[in-house]
Amino acid sequence: MAQITTSALSGKVTTQDTKEEVIGATVTKISAADFVKLKDDKQTYYMLTGTITTAGNGNKTELKTYGNFDLVDETGAAYIYGVQTGWENTPADSRKHFSDLGKKLGDEITVIGYKTLFNNKPQMGGAFYFEPKK
């Protein structure tokens, strides 16, 4: 897995929705409550850390294949629509291997992605798993 800092991403990524390459993207740590208030922007990446919970608001929780869930922190919840297993320019089907991460309901997770809407509901799109250095 590529090394990533919280201030900048080096390398390239292919987003799930648009297949656009993002090079040298800046990543901003943000709370779930602040994330859901943002305007849509597929060029700006945000980092969220929280607990994996069952999705509410009519969204689908699907952990085994895609990694769809609500991420809850001390400020609120943000819907995460699919989590790829890593940043590297992996094939599109990599988003179908969330179970490889071994994450389940109740686990803490950090993800990086952009803000988007689906059916007028805020969500994180283009998300990938991030494991901070210890």
Q: How does this model look, in words?
A:
The protein is mainly β and about 130 residues long. About 5% of the residues lie in helices and about 35% in strands. The protein has one helix and seven strands. It has one helix at about 30-35; strands spanning about 25-30, 40-55, 70-75, 75-80, 85, 110-120, 120-130. Strands 1, 2, 3, 4, 5, 6 and 7 form a seven-stranded mixed sheet that branches. A hairpin with a 2-residue loop joins strand 6 (about 110-120) and strand 7 (about 120-130). The radius of gyration is 13 Å and the shape is globular. The two termini are about 15 Å apart. The model is unreliable at about 1-10 and about 10-25 (pLDDT under 50).
User: Could you estimate the helical fraction of the residues in percent?
Assistant: under 10%
Q: Which strand-content bin applies to the residues?
A: 35-45%
pLDDT < 50 runs, ≥5 residues: 1-8, 10-23
What is Rg? Answer: 13 Å
Tally the beta strands.
Answer: 7
Major sheet summary line: 7 strands, mixed
Pairing-aware structural class of the strands and helices? Answer: mainly beta
Present the secondary structure layout.
Elements: E1 27-29, H1 32-35, E2 41-53, E3 69-73, E4 76-80, E5 83-84, E6 108-118, E7 121-129
Brief overview:
This protein has 134 residues and is an all-beta fold.
Which key terms come to mind for this protein?
134 residues, mainly beta, seven-stranded mixed sheet, globular
